[in-house]
Structure formats: structure tokens, C-alpha cells
Write a structure and sequence with these properties.
The protein is an all-alpha fold. The protein contains 14 helices and no strands. Helix 3 packs antiparallel against helix 4, helix 8 runs antiparallel to helix 9 and helix 9 packs antiparallel against helix 11.
Length: about 230
């Protein structure tokens, strides 16, 4: 990105960079605000691939899938890179076109992706299968050497979680429990809610401690009112 911005006049490059930094900073906690910053950057430097990519991710985060897809396509044309292929396919899912996402999963671009990109494409393809009601096919799609491996990579928790969730949707509860447990083992950062899903399958109920206190206070107030009424009687 820095190399691309160097092609711009210094002041303009600085303005664009500031907006891109804000997009990256806010995209998870405040995607709408991140989107607003991305639009500013886009107005300033629409011919910079990094700007089109950032605008795509900001639109994607706010579920503006048609806009995101257009930006990703523009970035791909500018760079010739296929790394955005999986998220482009997921935009097709967001637009209600899972069959297009499935078609993209079979394109030559997938073979050019690195391992992380191929796993991401597998996740998107499985999601597309589920969109079409093909739950068994989704399960088969996720079965791979990456899923079977005991090695833990950044994408491992999401892959295991997707597999566990698909198994559960197919009514294979025992297997789902096993894979939610494997997800918990790999998910050291808590990026998924696998531990909660596992607890639900084990029949563990979470009690809101604050709610319990409120109920106790309310009961105490009622008892006090009853006592006051009795005294008056």
C-alpha cells in the first residue's frame, strides 16, 4: 500500500493514509464509521488498489455486498491478485446467489490461493451448500486434510467450528460435540463461541448473576411490603 500511496502528491497521500488507518481501526467495532472513512479515501484516490480493497471490506462489514463486490473486482483488476477471491464469492452468497459462489469455488483462481485462502474458499463453498439446503454436501466440503490435521493455524478454529455446526444442523449431535470440543482446544483467543455451544450440548445453563440479585431484591421488597401490611392489620 505504501508504494501505491507514494505515487500520489504528498499531502494527498497523507490524507488518504489517515482515512485508511481509521478504516482499519474501526472496521470491527464501528463498521458504519469505518465505511464513512473508506468513502472519503475512495473519493480522494479511487485509482489506488489498496483504497478499493479497503472500501470493499468496509462495505462488506456493513453488508453492502453489491458495493463490496464491485470494489473487490476493481482491486483485483488493478493488482492481478486472486487473494480476494474467497471474499468475492462470499459477497455472492450475501447477494442471495450461492450458486455463483459454488461456481467460483471451482474456478482456476482457487488453485492460485495460498493455504489460508484455500481454506477460506472451502468455508465459503460449504456455506453456499448450506444456503441451498445441501447440509450433507456442506459437511463433505469441509472434510479435508486441513480439518483432519492436529496442527493449529489461524484458520483452524473457524474450520473446526463450521464443521461442528454443520454436523449439528444434520442432527449428528455426538459428532458435533466432539468437534466443538476440538474447536475450543484450538481457539485460544476465543474468536468463536464454541465453548458456549459445547456447554449447551452438555446441558449447562448459564445463570445471570445480576438477574438473580435483582430477583432476590424484588422478593425481599415484596416480603417487606407483606410484613408492613400485616403490621397495619
Amino acid at each position: 500500500m505504501r508504494q501505491e500511496l507514494l505515487s500520489l502528491p504528498k499531502t494527498l497521500a497523507e490524507d488518504v493514509a489517515r482515512n485508511l488507518v481509521m478504516v482499519a481501526r474501526l472496521i470491527d467495532e464501528d463498521p458504519e464509521q469505518a465505511y464513512a472513512y473508506s468513502r472519503i479515501a475512495l473519493r480522494l484516490a479511487s485509482r489506488v488498489a489498496a483504497v478499493r480493497e479497503a472500501a470493499g471490506f468496509a462495505a462488506y462489514a456493513t453488508q453492502k455486498y453489491a458495493e463490496a463486490l464491485a470494489e473487490f473486482r476493481a482491486a483485483k483488476r488493478m493488482t492481478g491478485s486472486v487473494e480476494l477471491w474467497p471474499v468475492m464469492a462470499d459477497c455472492e452468497r450475501g447477494l442471495g446467489r450461492p450458486e455463483r459462489a459454488m461456481a467460483m469455488a471451482g474456478e482456476p483462481e482457487v488453485q492460485k490461493l495460498d493455504k489460508a485462502g484455500q481454506v477460506e474458499m472451502r468455508l465459503v463453498a460449504a456455506g453456499a451448500r448450506r444456503d441451498m439446503g445441501q447440509i450433507d454436501a456442506a459437511i463433505v466440503t469441509l472434510q479435508s486434510s486441513e480439518l483432519a490435521s492436529n496442527a493449529v493455524h489461524p484458520w483452524t478454529p473457524r474450520l473446526r467450528y463450521a464443521y461442528a455446526d454443520a454436523l449439528l444442523a444434520a442432527g449428528r449431535e455426538d459428532e458435533a460435540r466432539e468437534w466443538f470440543a476440538k474447536t475450543v482446544e484450538a481457539d485460544k483467543d476465543g474468536s468463536t463461541d464454541a465453548s458456549d455451544r459445547l456447554a449447551e450440548l452438555d446441558g449447562v445453563e448459564f445463570v445471570d448473576a445480576l438477574g438473580e440479585d435483582d430477583d432476590a431484591d424484588e422478593t425481599a421488597d415484596v416480603d417487606a411490603d407483606d410484613e408492613g401490611s400485616a403490621d397495619k392489620a
